[in-house]
Design a protein that fits this description.
CATH class of chain A: Alpha Beta
Number of domains of chain B: 3
CATH architecture of the largest domain in chain B: 2-Layer Sandwich
Strand content of chain B: 15-25%
Number of helices of chain B: 8
Strand content of chain A: 35-45%
CATH topology of chain A: Transcription Regulator spoIIAA
Helix content of chain A: 25-40%
Number of strands of chain A: 6
Number of strands of chain B: 10
CATH superfamily of chain A: STAS domain
Distance between the termini of chain A: 24 Å
Shape of chain A: globular
Largest sheet of chain A: 6 strands, mixed
Helix content of chain B: 40-55%
Order of helices and strands of chain B: HHEHHEEHEEHEHEEEEH
CATH architecture of chain A: 2-Layer Sandwich
Oligomer: heterodimer
Protein backbone atom coordinates (compact mmCIF):
# COMPACT_ATOMS: atom_id res chain seq x y z
CA UNK A 1 0.00 0.00 0.00
CA UNK A 2 1.44 3.35 -1.05
CA UNK A 3 0.17 6.72 0.03
CA UNK A 4 0.58 10.21 -1.36
CA UNK A 5 -0.40 13.26 0.64
CA UNK A 6 -1.37 16.11 -1.65
CA UNK A 7 -2.27 19.14 0.44
CA UNK A 8 -5.60 18.46 2.10
CA UNK A 9 -6.10 15.22 0.21
CA UNK A 10 -4.65 11.72 0.26
CA UNK A 11 -4.30 9.14 -2.50
CA UNK A 12 -3.75 5.53 -1.46
CA UNK A 13 -2.77 2.79 -3.88
CA UNK A 14 -3.87 -0.74 -2.94
CA UNK A 15 -1.70 -2.78 -5.28
CA UNK A 16 -3.38 -6.15 -4.65
CA UNK A 17 -6.73 -4.80 -5.79
CA UNK A 18 -5.41 -2.33 -8.40
CA UNK A 19 -7.33 0.33 -6.51
CA UNK A 20 -6.59 4.01 -6.00
CA UNK A 21 -8.66 5.73 -3.30
CA UNK A 22 -8.88 9.51 -3.12
CA UNK A 23 -9.98 11.27 0.06
CA UNK A 24 -10.29 14.87 1.26
CA UNK A 25 -10.17 18.06 -0.73
CA UNK A 26 -7.71 18.21 -3.64
CA UNK A 27 -6.76 21.82 -4.22
CA UNK A 28 -3.10 22.15 -5.16
CA UNK A 29 -2.25 25.54 -6.61
CA UNK A 30 -1.35 24.76 -10.24
CA UNK A 31 -0.40 22.08 -12.79
CA UNK A 32 3.22 22.16 -11.65
CA UNK A 33 2.18 21.16 -8.14
CA UNK A 34 0.10 18.33 -9.59
CA UNK A 35 3.26 16.79 -11.13
CA UNK A 36 3.67 14.57 -8.03
CA UNK A 37 0.07 13.39 -8.38
CA UNK A 38 0.54 12.65 -12.09
CA UNK A 39 3.72 10.73 -11.28
CA UNK A 40 1.96 8.74 -8.52
CA UNK A 41 -0.91 7.84 -10.88
CA UNK A 42 1.55 6.83 -13.58
CA UNK A 43 3.55 4.57 -11.26
CA UNK A 44 0.39 2.97 -9.93
CA UNK A 45 -0.88 2.27 -13.44
CA UNK A 46 2.44 0.61 -14.37
CA UNK A 47 2.04 -2.02 -11.66
CA UNK A 48 -1.71 -2.49 -11.92
CA UNK A 49 -3.40 -5.34 -13.74
CA UNK A 50 -5.54 -4.82 -16.79
CA UNK A 51 -8.06 -2.67 -14.91
CA UNK A 52 -7.39 0.13 -12.43
CA UNK A 53 -10.11 1.54 -10.20
CA UNK A 54 -10.13 5.20 -9.16
CA UNK A 55 -12.36 5.49 -6.11
CA UNK A 56 -13.39 9.17 -5.80
CA UNK A 57 -16.33 8.59 -3.40
CA UNK A 58 -14.62 10.48 -0.59
CA UNK A 59 -13.07 13.24 -2.68
CA UNK A 60 -15.14 16.24 -1.59
CA UNK A 61 -13.46 18.78 -3.81
CA UNK A 62 -11.24 18.76 -6.90
CA UNK A 63 -10.09 21.96 -8.56
CA UNK A 64 -9.60 22.56 -12.28
CA UNK A 65 -5.89 21.62 -12.28
CA UNK A 66 -6.89 18.41 -10.50
CA UNK A 67 -9.54 17.45 -13.05
CA UNK A 68 -7.01 18.23 -15.81
CA UNK A 69 -4.46 15.90 -14.18
CA UNK A 70 -6.99 13.07 -13.90
CA UNK A 71 -8.22 13.65 -17.48
CA UNK A 72 -4.67 13.64 -18.89
CA UNK A 73 -3.99 10.42 -16.99
CA UNK A 74 -7.05 8.80 -18.58
CA UNK A 75 -5.92 10.03 -22.04
CA UNK A 76 -2.45 8.49 -21.46
CA UNK A 77 -4.02 5.14 -20.55
CA UNK A 78 -6.22 5.42 -23.64
CA UNK A 79 -3.19 6.06 -25.84
CA UNK A 80 -1.29 3.04 -24.55
CA UNK A 81 -4.45 0.93 -24.38
CA UNK A 82 -4.04 -0.11 -20.74
CA UNK A 83 -4.93 -0.25 -17.93
CA UNK A 84 -8.64 0.06 -18.46
CA UNK A 85 -10.17 2.52 -15.94
CA UNK A 86 -13.13 2.21 -13.58
CA UNK A 87 -14.20 5.35 -11.73
CA UNK A 88 -16.34 5.13 -8.58
CA UNK A 89 -18.30 8.32 -8.03
CA UNK A 90 -20.52 9.81 -5.36
CA UNK A 91 -23.57 11.71 -6.63
CA UNK A 92 -24.09 13.51 -3.36
CA UNK A 93 -20.99 15.59 -4.15
CA UNK A 94 -22.09 18.14 -6.72
CA UNK A 95 -18.89 18.44 -8.81
CA UNK A 96 -18.87 14.66 -9.34
CA UNK A 97 -22.30 14.53 -10.95
CA UNK A 98 -21.17 15.96 -14.27
CA UNK A 99 -17.37 15.92 -14.37
CA UNK A 100 -17.02 12.18 -13.85
CA UNK A 101 -19.49 11.33 -16.59
CA UNK A 102 -17.25 13.32 -18.92
CA UNK A 103 -14.40 10.80 -18.33
CA UNK A 104 -16.35 8.37 -20.48
CA UNK A 105 -16.34 10.91 -23.30
CA UNK A 106 -12.54 11.05 -23.06
CA UNK A 107 -12.28 7.26 -23.39
CA UNK A 108 -15.32 5.15 -24.08
CA UNK A 109 -13.76 2.17 -22.26
CA UNK A 110 -13.94 4.01 -18.93
CA UNK A 111 -16.50 2.40 -16.63
CA UNK A 112 -18.38 4.53 -14.12
CA UNK A 113 -19.84 3.07 -10.95
CA UNK A 114 -21.85 4.63 -8.19
CA UNK B 1 -6.33 0.35 -59.09
CA UNK B 2 -3.24 1.82 -57.59
CA UNK B 3 -1.62 -0.38 -54.94
CA UNK B 4 -0.59 1.44 -51.76
CA UNK B 5 2.80 0.38 -50.45
CA UNK B 6 3.02 0.21 -46.61
CA UNK B 7 6.04 2.51 -46.70
CA UNK B 8 4.37 4.91 -49.02
CA UNK B 9 5.00 8.39 -47.50
CA UNK B 10 1.42 9.19 -48.36
CA UNK B 11 0.12 6.43 -46.06
CA UNK B 12 2.39 7.57 -43.25
CA UNK B 13 1.23 11.12 -43.68
CA UNK B 14 -2.38 9.99 -43.51
CA UNK B 15 -1.67 8.02 -40.33
CA UNK B 16 0.02 11.04 -38.73
CA UNK B 17 -2.86 13.21 -39.77
CA UNK B 18 -5.37 10.78 -38.25
CA UNK B 19 -3.35 10.71 -35.01
CA UNK B 20 -3.35 14.50 -34.82
CA UNK B 21 -7.06 14.63 -35.52
CA UNK B 22 -7.68 12.09 -32.74
CA UNK B 23 -5.55 14.15 -30.40
CA UNK B 24 -7.44 17.32 -31.28
CA UNK B 25 -10.67 15.45 -30.60
CA UNK B 26 -9.32 14.34 -27.20
CA UNK B 27 -8.24 17.89 -26.39
CA UNK B 28 -11.68 19.19 -27.31
CA UNK B 29 -13.30 16.75 -24.89
CA UNK B 30 -10.67 17.57 -22.28
CA UNK B 31 -11.32 21.27 -22.69
CA UNK B 32 -15.04 20.72 -22.36
CA UNK B 33 -14.52 18.54 -19.27
CA UNK B 34 -12.44 21.20 -17.57
CA UNK B 35 -14.79 24.02 -18.54
CA UNK B 36 -17.81 22.16 -17.21
CA UNK B 37 -15.97 21.23 -14.05
CA UNK B 38 -14.97 24.85 -13.48
CA UNK B 39 -18.51 26.04 -14.10
CA UNK B 40 -19.87 23.58 -11.53
CA UNK B 41 -17.39 24.84 -8.95
CA UNK B 42 -17.95 28.52 -9.85
CA UNK B 43 -21.71 28.13 -9.64
CA UNK B 44 -21.41 26.44 -6.29
CA UNK B 45 -19.10 29.24 -5.13
CA UNK B 46 -21.63 31.84 -6.25
CA UNK B 47 -24.46 30.04 -4.43
CA UNK B 48 -22.35 29.87 -1.27
CA UNK B 49 -21.45 33.56 -1.64
CA UNK B 50 -25.12 34.44 -1.84
CA UNK B 51 -25.83 32.31 1.21
CA UNK B 52 -23.06 34.10 3.12
CA UNK B 53 -24.38 37.52 2.07
CA UNK B 54 -27.87 36.59 3.29
CA UNK B 55 -26.41 35.22 6.51
CA UNK B 56 -24.41 38.41 7.10
CA UNK B 57 -27.55 40.49 6.60
CA UNK B 58 -29.36 38.32 9.16
CA UNK B 59 -26.42 38.55 11.58
CA UNK B 60 -26.52 42.31 11.29
CA UNK B 61 -29.99 42.27 12.80
CA UNK B 62 -29.30 39.70 15.51
CA UNK B 63 -25.95 41.09 16.66
CA UNK B 64 -24.92 44.42 18.02
CA UNK B 65 -23.10 46.58 15.41
CA UNK B 66 -19.92 46.25 17.48
CA UNK B 67 -19.98 42.47 17.51
CA UNK B 68 -20.99 42.41 13.86
CA UNK B 69 -18.00 44.56 12.86
CA UNK B 70 -15.71 42.51 15.06
CA UNK B 71 -16.79 39.25 13.39
CA UNK B 72 -16.46 40.72 9.91
CA UNK B 73 -13.06 42.17 10.66
CA UNK B 74 -14.01 45.77 10.03
CA UNK B 75 -12.26 46.86 13.19
CA UNK B 76 -11.54 50.32 11.88
CA UNK B 77 -15.25 50.91 11.68
CA UNK B 78 -15.91 49.89 15.26
CA UNK B 79 -17.26 52.98 16.91
CA UNK B 80 -17.00 52.89 20.67
CA UNK B 81 -18.34 56.37 21.25
CA UNK B 82 -21.77 57.21 22.61
CA UNK B 83 -24.34 59.06 20.59
CA UNK B 84 -27.73 60.61 21.17
CA UNK B 85 -30.37 59.46 18.74
CA UNK B 86 -34.11 59.78 18.36
CA UNK B 87 -35.47 56.22 18.45
CA UNK B 88 -38.74 54.37 18.83
CA UNK B 89 -38.39 51.87 21.65
CA UNK B 90 -40.47 48.74 22.09
CA UNK B 91 -40.92 46.40 25.07
CA UNK B 92 -43.01 43.25 25.36
CA UNK B 93 -43.62 40.87 28.22
CA UNK B 94 -45.63 37.67 28.70
CA UNK B 95 -48.34 38.10 31.34
CA UNK B 96 -48.05 35.70 34.30
CA UNK B 97 -44.92 34.06 32.97
CA UNK B 98 -43.50 33.30 36.43
CA UNK B 99 -46.67 31.46 37.31
CA UNK B 100 -46.62 29.57 34.00
CA UNK B 101 -43.00 28.56 34.54
CA UNK B 102 -43.82 27.19 38.01
CA UNK B 103 -46.58 24.98 36.65
CA UNK B 104 -45.25 23.70 33.33
CA UNK B 105 -42.55 21.10 32.60
CA UNK B 106 -39.29 22.91 31.92
CA UNK B 107 -38.88 20.98 28.64
CA UNK B 108 -42.24 22.11 27.27
CA UNK B 109 -41.70 25.60 28.64
CA UNK B 110 -38.32 26.07 26.98
CA UNK B 111 -39.69 24.71 23.72
CA UNK B 112 -42.73 27.00 23.58
CA UNK B 113 -40.78 30.01 24.88
CA UNK B 114 -38.03 29.61 22.30
CA UNK B 115 -40.58 29.18 19.57
CA UNK B 116 -42.36 32.35 20.72
CA UNK B 117 -39.16 34.42 20.98
CA UNK B 118 -37.91 33.14 17.66
CA UNK B 119 -41.15 34.01 15.90
CA UNK B 120 -41.22 37.46 17.50
CA UNK B 121 -37.58 38.03 16.48
CA UNK B 122 -38.41 37.06 12.90
CA UNK B 123 -41.26 39.60 12.84
CA UNK B 124 -38.96 42.27 14.35
CA UNK B 125 -36.36 41.63 11.65
CA UNK B 126 -39.00 41.69 8.94
CA UNK B 127 -40.00 45.22 9.97
CA UNK B 128 -36.40 46.42 10.38
CA UNK B 129 -36.20 46.47 14.17
CA UNK B 130 -32.90 46.11 16.02
CA UNK B 131 -33.27 43.47 18.73
CA UNK B 132 -31.55 44.93 21.76
CA UNK B 133 -31.99 41.98 24.09
CA UNK B 134 -34.13 39.13 25.35
CA UNK B 135 -34.72 39.43 29.09
CA UNK B 136 -36.22 36.07 30.02
CA UNK B 137 -39.58 36.19 28.28
CA UNK B 138 -39.34 39.93 27.61
CA UNK B 139 -38.17 41.56 24.41
CA UNK B 140 -36.50 44.94 23.93
CA UNK B 141 -36.37 46.25 20.39
CA UNK B 142 -35.64 49.65 18.92
CA UNK B 143 -35.98 51.39 15.57
CA UNK B 144 -33.67 54.09 14.23
CA UNK B 145 -30.20 52.66 14.83
CA UNK B 146 -27.87 51.50 13.28
CA UNK B 147 -29.85 52.50 10.17
CA UNK B 148 -31.64 55.80 10.39
CA UNK B 149 -34.47 56.61 7.95
CA UNK B 150 -36.81 59.12 9.61
CA UNK B 151 -38.68 59.36 12.89
CA UNK B 152 -42.14 58.74 11.38
CA UNK B 153 -40.95 55.70 9.50
CA UNK B 154 -39.40 54.17 12.64
CA UNK B 155 -42.56 54.71 14.72
CA UNK B 156 -44.72 53.27 11.94
CA UNK B 157 -42.49 50.25 11.37
CA UNK B 158 -42.61 49.62 15.10
CA UNK B 159 -46.42 49.91 15.04
CA UNK B 160 -46.70 47.50 12.12
CA UNK B 161 -44.40 45.11 13.95
CA UNK B 162 -46.39 45.24 17.20
CA UNK B 163 -49.69 44.60 15.39
CA UNK B 164 -48.15 41.70 13.44
CA UNK B 165 -46.80 40.26 16.68
CA UNK B 166 -50.16 40.46 18.46
CA UNK B 167 -51.80 38.76 15.49
CA UNK B 168 -49.33 35.88 15.66
CA UNK B 169 -49.65 35.76 19.46
CA UNK B 170 -53.41 35.15 19.12
CA UNK B 171 -52.58 32.06 17.05
CA UNK B 172 -49.83 30.93 19.44
CA UNK B 173 -52.27 31.37 22.34
CA UNK B 174 -54.37 28.50 20.96
CA UNK B 175 -51.25 26.36 20.53
CA UNK B 176 -50.13 27.07 24.10
CA UNK B 177 -53.54 26.08 25.46
CA UNK B 178 -53.40 22.88 23.41
CA UNK B 179 -50.03 22.13 24.98
CA UNK B 180 -51.63 22.25 28.43
CA UNK B 181 -50.76 25.82 29.39
CA UNK B 182 -54.18 26.87 30.66
CA UNK B 183 -53.04 30.50 30.96
CA UNK B 184 -52.40 30.63 27.24
CA UNK B 185 -50.19 33.31 25.79
CA UNK B 186 -51.02 36.91 26.62
CA UNK B 187 -48.52 39.64 25.96
CA UNK B 188 -48.29 43.27 27.01
CA UNK B 189 -46.53 45.73 24.75
CA UNK B 190 -45.29 49.29 25.13
CA UNK B 191 -43.94 51.78 22.60
CA UNK B 192 -42.40 55.20 23.07
CA UNK B 193 -40.26 57.54 20.97
CA UNK B 194 -37.56 59.90 22.14
CA UNK B 195 -33.87 60.66 22.40
CA UNK B 196 -31.72 57.88 23.84
CA UNK B 197 -28.03 57.36 24.41
CA UNK B 198 -26.72 54.61 22.13
CA UNK B 199 -23.41 52.96 22.96
CA UNK B 200 -21.48 50.35 24.87
CA UNK B 201 -22.43 49.82 28.47
CA UNK B 202 -21.18 47.24 30.91
CA UNK B 203 -17.91 46.09 32.41
CA UNK B 204 -14.58 45.80 30.59
CA UNK B 205 -15.05 42.06 30.12
CA UNK B 206 -18.64 42.10 29.11
CA UNK B 207 -19.97 45.02 27.08
CA UNK B 208 -23.41 45.36 25.58
CA UNK B 209 -24.30 47.65 22.74
CA UNK B 210 -27.56 49.04 24.00
CA UNK B 211 -29.64 52.14 24.61
CA UNK B 212 -30.20 53.92 27.88
CA UNK B 213 -32.08 56.97 29.07
CA UNK B 214 -35.34 58.16 30.53
CA UNK B 215 -37.21 57.43 27.33
CA UNK B 216 -36.21 53.76 27.50
CA UNK B 217 -37.68 53.62 31.00
CA UNK B 218 -40.89 55.28 29.80
CA UNK B 219 -41.30 52.65 27.05
CA UNK B 220 -40.81 49.96 29.68
CA UNK B 221 -43.38 51.59 31.99
CA UNK B 222 -45.93 51.79 29.15
CA UNK B 223 -45.49 48.07 28.60
CA UNK B 224 -46.13 47.29 32.29
CA UNK B 225 -49.26 49.51 32.27
CA UNK B 226 -50.68 47.90 29.14
CA UNK B 227 -53.79 45.71 29.15
CA UNK B 228 -53.43 42.01 28.24
CA UNK B 229 -52.83 41.68 24.49
CA UNK B 230 -52.67 45.46 24.31
CA UNK B 231 -50.15 47.83 22.76
CA UNK B 232 -49.74 51.01 24.81
CA UNK B 233 -48.07 53.91 23.06
CA UNK B 234 -47.14 57.39 24.21
CA UNK B 235 -48.68 60.48 22.60
CA UNK B 236 -45.19 61.22 21.20
CA UNK B 237 -45.20 57.96 19.24
CA UNK B 238 -48.87 58.42 18.33
CA UNK B 239 -48.08 61.77 16.70
CA UNK B 240 -45.58 60.04 14.45
CA UNK B 241 -48.05 57.40 13.24
CA UNK B 242 -49.95 57.76 9.99
CA UNK B 243 -53.73 57.89 9.55
CA UNK B 244 -54.00 54.17 8.88
CA UNK B 245 -53.38 53.34 12.55
CA UNK B 246 -56.29 53.36 14.96
CA UNK B 247 -55.58 54.48 18.54
CA UNK B 248 -57.71 55.23 21.56
CA UNK B 249 -56.90 57.35 24.60
CA UNK B 250 -56.33 55.27 27.71
CA UNK B 251 -54.92 57.39 30.54
CA UNK B 252 -52.55 60.12 31.57
CA UNK B 253 -49.39 59.00 33.24
CA UNK B 254 -47.01 60.88 35.53
CA UNK B 255 -43.39 59.88 35.26
CA UNK B 256 -41.05 60.30 38.18
CA UNK B 257 -38.53 63.00 37.46
CA UNK B 258 -40.42 64.38 34.47
CA UNK B 259 -42.59 67.36 35.32
CA UNK B 260 -45.10 66.96 32.50
CA UNK B 261 -47.56 64.06 32.28
CA UNK B 262 -47.63 61.73 29.26
CA UNK B 263 -50.84 60.73 27.55
CA UNK B 264 -51.11 57.04 26.86
CA UNK B 265 -53.02 55.60 23.91
CA UNK B 266 -53.83 52.04 22.99
CA UNK B 267 -52.86 51.03 19.49
CA UNK B 268 -55.83 49.02 18.25
CA UNK B 269 -54.95 48.13 14.68
CA UNK B 270 -55.62 49.50 11.23
CA UNK B 271 -58.52 51.63 10.09
CA UNK B 272 -61.45 49.63 8.62
CA UNK B 273 -59.51 46.53 7.73
CA UNK B 274 -58.84 45.30 11.24
CA UNK B 275 -61.55 43.63 13.29
CA UNK B 276 -60.08 45.37 16.33
CA UNK B 277 -60.75 48.83 14.93
CA UNK B 278 -62.76 51.32 17.08
CA UNK B 279 -65.05 49.49 19.36
CA UNK B 280 -68.64 50.37 18.58
CA UNK B 281 -69.93 48.53 21.64
CA UNK B 282 -67.60 49.64 24.38
CA UNK B 283 -66.65 53.11 25.50
CA UNK B 284 -64.00 53.34 28.19
CA UNK B 285 -63.84 56.38 30.35
CA UNK B 286 -61.00 56.25 32.85
CA UNK B 287 -61.89 53.42 35.22
CA UNK B 288 -65.48 53.48 34.08
CA UNK B 289 -67.08 52.15 30.94
CA UNK B 290 -70.27 51.98 29.01
CA UNK B 291 -71.36 48.85 27.17
CA UNK B 292 -73.82 49.30 24.35
CA UNK B 293 -76.59 46.89 23.46
CA UNK B 294 -75.18 43.79 21.79
CA UNK B 295 -77.32 41.67 19.55
CA UNK B 296 -76.35 38.81 17.31
CA UNK B 297 -78.55 36.97 14.83
CA UNK B 298 -76.73 33.96 13.33
CA UNK B 299 -78.94 34.08 10.24
CA UNK B 300 -78.58 37.75 9.50
CA UNK B 301 -75.20 38.74 10.94
CA UNK B 302 -71.71 37.96 9.65
CA UNK B 303 -69.06 35.93 11.49
CA UNK B 304 -66.99 39.17 11.55
CA UNK B 305 -69.64 40.75 13.75
CA UNK B 306 -69.38 37.81 16.14
CA UNK B 307 -65.60 38.30 16.21
CA UNK B 308 -66.11 42.01 17.01
CA UNK B 309 -68.45 41.13 19.88
CA UNK B 310 -65.95 38.59 21.20
CA UNK B 311 -63.14 41.17 21.04
CA UNK B 312 -65.31 43.71 22.87
CA UNK B 313 -66.06 41.26 25.67
CA UNK B 314 -62.40 40.32 25.99
CA UNK B 315 -61.53 43.99 26.16
CA UNK B 316 -64.20 44.64 28.76
CA UNK B 317 -63.01 41.77 30.98
CA UNK B 318 -59.41 43.03 30.85
CA UNK B 319 -60.65 46.56 31.58
CA UNK B 320 -62.49 45.31 34.68
CA UNK B 321 -59.52 43.22 35.76
CA UNK B 322 -57.14 46.14 35.42
CA UNK B 323 -59.31 48.61 37.25
CA UNK B 324 -60.46 46.43 40.12
Amino acid sequence: MKTLNAGESTITYHEAESLLTFTGSMRLANMKEYDVVAEFLHESSESSKDRLTLDLKSLRFLNSSGITTLSLFILTCKKQGYPKITVVKNDTISWQQKSITNFKKLWDEVEIEN
Amino acid sequence: MEHQHPYDPNVKWKEERQKLLDEIQDLKVLYKTIAEHSSTIENELETKNQEITTLIQQLRKYLSPQLYNLILGEQGKTDLSYKRKFLTIFFSDIIGFTEISDRIDPEILSEVLNRYLNEMAQIAIKFGGTIDKFIGDALMIFFGDPEYVDDQRHAQDCGHMAIAMQKRIRELDIEWKNRGISHGLKVRMGMHSGYCTVGNFGSENRMDYTIIGGNVNIAHRLESLSVPNGIFISSITRNLLSEEFVTRFSQTFHVKGIHYPIDIYELLGYRDTDSQAPDSYLIQNGKGFQLRNIEFDPDADSPEKLQKIENTLHRLLSHIENNR
